[in-house]
Amino acid sequence: MKLLDSLRFRIATLFRRSRMNADIDDELRSHIQHRADDLDRSGLPRVEAERRARIEFGGQVRFKEESREAAGGTFIESVIQDVRFAFRMLRKSPGFTFVAVVTLAVAIGANAVVFGVLDALILRPLNVPQAQSLYGIERGADNAVNQSYPDYLDLRERNRSFEDLAAYNVTAVGLDTGHNPSSAWILEVTGNYFDALGIQPYLGRFFHAADEHGPNSAPYIVLTYAFWHTHFQDDRGVVGRTVQLNRHPFAILGVAPPEFRGTVVFVAADFWVPLVNQEQVEGVNVLNARGNRGILMVLGHLKAGVTPAQAVADLNSIGSYLEQTYPKDDGHMTFSLTRPGLTGDWLGGPLKAFLTGLMLLAGLILLAACANLGSLFAARAADRSRELALRLALGSGPLRILRQLFTEAVLISLIGGAVGLWGSVWLLRGLSVWEPLPTAPLHIPVNPDANVYAVALLLSLASAFLFGAVPVRQVLHTDPYQVIKSGSISTVGRRITIRDLLLVTQIAICAVLVTSSLVAVRGLLRSIHSSFGFEPRNAMLVETDLSMAGYTGDATSAMQKRMINALEAIPGVQSVGMVDRLPLYYGANESLVFTDQTTDLRPGNAAAETTIYKISPEYFDAAGTTLLAGRTLTWHDDKNAPRVAVVNREFASKVFGSATKALNKYYKAKDGSRIQVVGIVEDGKYASLAEDPQPAMFLPVLQSPSSGASLVVRSNGDPQQLTAAIKSTVQNLDAALPFTIRTWSQELESALFPSRMATLSLGVLGVMGALLSITGIFGMAMYSVSKRKKELGIRMALGAQRKEVLQAALGRAFKLLAFGSAAGLLLGILASRVLAFIVYQATPRDPLVLAGVVVAMSLLGLLAAWIPAQRALSIDPMILLREE
Amino acid sequence: MTDQAQLLPGTLDLLILRAVSLGPLHGYGVLLRIGQISGNALLIEQGALYPGLFRLVRQGLLKASWGTSENNRRAKFYELTVAGRKRLRQETASWNRLATAIGAALAPQSEEV
């Protein structure tokens, strides 16, 4: 009640404001009159009496102010007064205001964007009920999230820590809704998926654990809201309809709520399909293969009261049971828990490190901006020292003046923050609907939420106090009598001031940003021009999966051979090869291999974990992979011939010791079969551009069949011209086969996407940092020239040369620049180590990068000092001396 | 001037209440009354009186109204409210307790003599 009363009182006094002011004025005047009357009576002339009365009374302004404060109405009122005054001051210097607002808008906007991404991808849990207790399960020391289906069943049935465990997989499927067969991205999930996550349908119903009765027993799909919206136009009658997946009928059961888009944050899947129908969906069924870890992730809610540590202990005891029971398939079954949204630490780890680094850099940008504005404010306070001194002399308290200055700072930063937030919300919304890759369902769901707004507001206020605090000391130490007597403070200090420190800090921050963006750009360029182990130029890709058109068994390889022959017949085509899965395309198939001597084929005894490609004989030709020794594969390496493989150099040296020793030798696959090495090819990039050389083996597709088929069509000239011919050729072979055609270079976009995004974001921050430095140096140089005009004029009149004048005017700015750049360069080199995890071959120990930083910083300095230098040189000593 | 004592913080309000308790006064009158009842022993900056007056009005201990002074000038007169009178009694009592205690503490003790 008391609070409410006081508030009401304050508001009431606010409305009575002008009356109260007049009241106070009247009362003080009355007091002075009464006193003057007394003095008058004691014999002083009236005029002298009134003067004496006023002096005796003391600082009228101050007491009036204090009275108003005591009367209670003043807080809100004086804030309003301050804001009004601040607006007037800012309007009076539009240049200053503009620079300050834009600087802050950019800096706060950058922070809001980076935070928005960080918040959406890392901080915000998956959009499911009780997300805090939802964990994904990771395996082994390298935190693999993939598991095999039999292992999943054991984990689900034997654990005592989770309420339920669900599992999912991301894959593509051929979808036919009656017209225009196309390929769709789906989540294959266990029957208990929706129940384990606690999701309720938006429309119709979900499938449940009870719907699973063995392979292919649950031909149902559940649509995502977005897919229902775009492909079925919100038709509520869609429930119960049948669609064809890979030519098998599936019934649409229902639609998921709009806020639930699946359990992988960055995948925009189209619908969910029961995992038990894997054979129909993927063409193969590995649900019984304990060694095949094809499930992307297992996840579930912890039971109430179970700690993550207890759950890990529980899982590990199941793990040791699995190791003992299935020594051939299960080795190193230790488990840990992870946040499920980003497929665990595999992607979440580097992404987190990078985004945290980016946030740090954005924070540095804001700090640099604050340093910049701080020195602007200090300069402004110095220029206004006359006004401030006058106000102090008239009895205004220094606190009151500081509050006024802070009001200005807060006002500027709130305006800047609002503009920056507006821009970042716009950018984040754009990012959210952006589909960066044509070949993948990648999306970046970063719609800003309340957190982003709160952070922007907080940052605005914090930066206001940061840069608003810079002139505080200056104001508190102002001696009004000195200032009014001698004009503005015109001492040219030789000692280091706060503003110098601010400028050096800011330049150092800028140099860090410039260094890291240059490192990233160089790394990106290098990764684009590095050897992939294949030649993407002049190659078209025809991608399809024969299981999507219902091919099985021998029909698959026959069709693959028919496609190769038909495409080879197109004029202009040099060679056509087939691979089951393209290198650098969302991970690779991997398997353990053993030396020929190994008899106990448990995982611990493996010689290497190697990437597997199943290829047609012409693949190396078409892909442009160089054969180093031995022979390539032929169509005679079929089921009836002994098993053979071509391996890469890394494989040869890892399993056999060296490339020369490997040729014609044998090794063992995981099933124990002996495979002879008939050829050796160059190393390439398989899973990511940033990887070290990895072992890889290439198996003939006739001996290891696969329904996946990516055809590489190499041509003499521009491959794009062949698009129409390729399209009609494939359609002539099977009109119902969904496929895509694009150049290999386009395909590589996805592999380059992470380093491109990293480079882009660093580049943007680098440019921001550079701009801030320019304005910072510019402001400093300009200020020092204008302050020292008189001195420079005298020097010129005494015969100083241009060079000497410039040195006097700008020498200090350049010294600061050199010092700051050196510090920043050192820091940047340290910071770039983090970058090496994302950007291929990012190393700061690169003469080009070092030279680039030095050149960039000097250019910045020149650019920023140009106008002040002109200004210094154009000083006319005669005019100046006459003026003063 | 030099034999005037500085006011202890917080005592101005008490002096104002006391001065006004003897009858309604305007601001300058309060000043004169304090001088009179304290034998001009206290140094009060004239302007400093007003924040105190406004504060007491806001706390509901004084009420103010405009009137005409003995000099025939417009002036604002202050008088005690019931709450103000009560507060004056409490404050006086507690001041006396304090003054006695401090006085006793500072008085020459028997051991010192």
- Per DSSP, the total helix count of chain B is 4
Overall geometric form of chain B = elongated
Tally of discrete structural domains of chain A: 4
Please state the CA-atom Rg of chain B, rounded to the nearest Å.
16 Å
Overall mean pLDDT of chain B stands at 84
Question: What is the spatial order of strands in the main beta sheet of chain A?
Answer: 2-3-8-5-7-6
Distance between the termini of chain A: 63 Å
Determine the strand fraction of chain B and express it as a percent band.
15-25%
**Uncertain ranges of chain B:** none
Oligomer: heterodimer
CATH architecture classification name of chain B: Orthogonal Bundle
CATH class of chain B: Mainly Alpha
Question: Helix count of chain A, per DSSP?
Answer: 28
Largest sheet composition of chain B = 3 strands, antiparallel
Q: Can you count the beta strands of chain A?
A: 21
Ends distance of chain B: 34 Å
At the fold tier of CATH, the topology name of chain B is Arc Repressor Mutant, subunit A
Give the full name of the CATH homologous superfamily of chain B: Winged helix-like DNA-binding domain superfamily/Winged helix DNA-binding domain
Shape of chain A: elongated
- Tell me the strand percentage band of chain A: 5-15%
